[in-house]
Every structure is written in structure tokens, then in C-alpha cells.
Amino acid sequence: MILALHDLALARGGRVLFENLNLRVAAGEFGVIRGRNGAGKTSLLRAIAGWLRPHAGRIAFADGVDASSSLHVIGHGDGLKGGLGVGAHVAYWAGLLGGERASVARALDQVGLAALADLPARILSRGQARRLALARLIVAPRPIWLLDEPAAGLDGDGKALLDAMIGAHCAAGGVALAALHEALGPNPDHVVQLG
Amino acid sequence: MSAILALFRRDLALAWSAGSGAAAPVGFFLGAAMLLPLSVGAERTLLGAIGAPILWIAAALASLMVLERLFQADLEEGGLDQMLLSPAPLEALAAAKAAALWVGVGLPIAAAAAPAAIALQAPPAAAGAIALGLAIGEAAFLFAGLVGAAAAASVKRAGVLIALLVLPFFAPPILFGAAAAAAAAEGAPFGPAFLLLCGTTLFALALGPIAAAAALRLQAT
Hints:
heterodimer, A: alpha/beta, Rossmann fold, 5-stranded parallel sheet, 3-stranded antiparallel sheet, 31% helix, B: mainly alpha, 84% helix, elongated
């Protein structure tokens, strides 16, 4: 077990989103969170990251796993600065998240942004910005990926890239939990239906 | 350590990248200082007496300008989430942001203060001491301002709120800084006022990042 939810309930603004959620995710497993808008998919991922206190129940990690060394979060905001270069973003994340500066070029190449490395991030399209955010996953290897609608804005190639990234991550023993509206990644080991 | 350096480098690059505009507070500082002779007239003794204190007030207001978006932008764009995922403590990351701001904005303001002080009839020999005092005082402004910027990060149009929150903390460095500048103009640059200014700056350096990190953790949840 890498990550477990015990009778978890979350509330936002005094309204309970869901209750009694139980989940045990082991190494190499891929979990998909489904639910209508407002069902609590983002809240669940933020609670696992430690940014939202559970209304009831608890979230447990395996020994040695904690947010500051083991988690990646791809959320609604890509965390980009318009005035900073595309490559500089990846170098920044490598430093901030404990990755290797040597893998910056490889990460940019893998997400298809190598040709834009020296340009400021403000010129990126919505999908390119998301590709840049995905470069975080490559430049700083971490075992648990929390992906909140990671395919938003991505084109067909981008979705194929993300699909392959999740597949390779889980095949290498990593864990991915994704809030998804479409089919993506390998065949899920867990499907959490909210709401 | 590499996380702290990475954030410092990024924020320093951003401070002078197009659109973020560290040039704006420096320009504001010089503009405000140069309005003084227009409002009080060009009488040498009067200007000489109030020139350095006015520089301190202009520097404090210019520092306020950069605080509003300091954490707000990171919070809106998702950058704060990434800082929370870093192995480096949030206190150290907050300190890195303030340090980058000090190098990118605070030091240029202090450097601009030397010619501005001479233009306002301070003795040329004292200009260096006045600029040095402002460089130290800017660190107090920015590290104390960090707390207001963090506390108001999720508030829209937070400029006025931040000003209300942090201006009381600007009082000690202004008090001792202006006194140190006056002493410098009289030829005694490193007296008690200067040491007290250093003391207030150390206070802000020690407590600002801790309080700012506590406020940021509240914002994230």
C-alpha cells in the first residue's frame, strides 16, 4: 500500500461533498476519479496533497512517503510566469522539487517544447502551457502523481503523450490518481465514482 | 538549498523581465523624490534638512508597490502549490522571495538614492552613507512587507489592505533610518541610529518569513 483513504469525507463551504470513501492504492496502480462538475474531484486530490482538511476519516501514506518529497500535482493552474522562459520554468522546477538540472533538456524534448525553450511562457497556447506543466513530472521523478483533468487543453498528440507518460510511470512502480472526463492512460486499477 | 536558490533565481529574473517591472518602483521613487524641490522651493537649507527623510518615505511607498502581486500571482497561477510540494521549508522559500525582491528592487532604489540625495542638497560625502542606510532599510521594508503580502494574497485589489497591514511595521526603520541619514549629513554616518536601523532590519529578517509562511499555509487550504 502506498496511499490509503479510510472512510474519507470532504466538505466545502459547510456542504458535504462525499462520505465514506475508502481506497487502497498499491505501487504501480492507476486510479481514476470520475464525477460530475462539483462532485469533489479537485477537493479529493487537494485533500490527498494535504491542502484540504478532511471533514471525517483520514488519509494515510506508506512510511517514507510525504507531500514534500513524493507528490506531484498537476492542477487547474499550470503555475507559469508569463515573463519567464519556457526552459527556465523547467530548470526552476528541477531546483524547487529536487530534480536533476541535467534532465531539463530531455523533459522539454519529451513534451515537445524543445524548440520554444528560449521563448517567454506568455506566448504559449493553452495546450502548450499544459505540456510545459507536464514537464514537471519528468524533470523531478516522484512516485505519486495527482492529476486534475490533466488532458485539459491538450491536442491529440498531447493526450497520447500524457497517456504514454502515465503508462510508463505506473509500469515503473509509480502511482497515478487522475480526475478524468475521458478515457486516458492504462486500464485503471481503481475507479472512484463521486456524487 | 537548491530549491531556495532556484526560487531566488526565478524571482530575480522575473523582477527585471518585461511586464513585471522592477523599473516602475525605482521610477516612482525617483519621481516622488524629485517632486520635493517643486513643492517646497529650491532653498538649500530647507531641502538639505528634509531631503533625506523624504527619500525614506518615497522608498517605503515604492516598496509597497511591489508587495501586492508578490504572492497573489503565485496563488492564482498555481505556483504556490508547487512551493508547498518543495522539500525546502516554506519559511525559507518566503525568505528567498523577499531576498530576490531586495536584490531586484530594494538595491536599485538604494543606488538611485545616492544621486537623488545629492540633488536634494545632501552633502556629497554623505550620499554613500544615505544609500547604504536605505539598502539596509529596504530589507526591513520588504521582509516585513512579506507578511502583509502573504496575508492578503487571496484578496482582490489588496494594495490598500497591505498598506494598512504593513505601514506600522515600516515605522521603526523609517524612524531610525531617517535619523541615521540626518547623522550622515552632519558627518557622523555610523552612530546609534544606524545600529538601531540594523537591529530593526534583523528583526524583520528573522520574523517576516516565519509569519509569511504561516499566512501562506492558511491561504492554500
